[in-house]
Amino acid sequence: MAELRNINPEITTYLLEADPKRWARSFFPKRRYNIMTSNIFESINSTIEHARDLPITPLVEALREMVQDWFSRRKEVATSQFFDVTKWANDVMESKLNQAFRMKVDKIDMFKYQVTYGDITFIVDLTENSCSCKEFQLEGIPCAHAIAAIDANHFDKYKFCSEWYSKSVLLETYAGSVNPLPNKEDWNTLDEIKEDRIKPPEFKVKPGRPKKRRGEGIGDYPKRGRRRTMTCGNSGILDHNKKSCNHTTNQF
Description:
Number of strands: 4
Low-confidence stretches: none
Distance between the termini: 45 Å
Pfam families: SWIM
Strand content: 5-15%
GO molecular function, one term: zinc ion binding
Organism: Cannabis sativa (Hemp)
Mean pLDDT: 84
Keywords: Metal-binding, Zinc, Zinc-finger
Domain SWIM-type: 122-154
Order of helices and strands: HHHHHHEEEEHHHH
Largest sheet: 4 strands, antiparallel
Shape: flat
């Protein structure tokens, strides 16, 4: 908070007055699994960019084909897993091994350990899947301190991961199949529906070229990166260059 106060004191005051559960991951009542946003609509919006201009029927079919491909490929990936957890979770733990091997582990009781790294001491409780650094509880994956305690006792580190990272859950997620529609000739359509004639909605065409890009909202990240800040080489003031500078300089 001290760093944030140096950047913007007003934002710091606003956050301190707000409920920390709304903006601090350490105070969130549930596990966020290191996911900082739940705005899945933006992820889908960027994924279907190639199909957004299609008419409704081809659009729905494009979405169906996309989900069908997702289920097929990810089911193959889940089946080919060699570990009891997903490849991503395994890679996360592997990245912590080098640090874990440099830690000193002392037993407190059967499943509680004191883990020392440099001058800092952490308490790991393997019955609670917790560490005093809080990373273990927040991510559902053993932190480096927990891995040090687990390896010191020759336990299976995969057993201490959250079940949501397990291979079995991954297989269950993509257990179903997304099938295509049958041919139109094979449709079993009711007679009263066959007689219906659906007309397009009435609307007034607006002047100008149709807008293709969605307006950016709060929390959107610009796709083209950050705008470079312009600094004048003459006066050192922001937002203009030397050519357009109106400030005079002292001549010595």
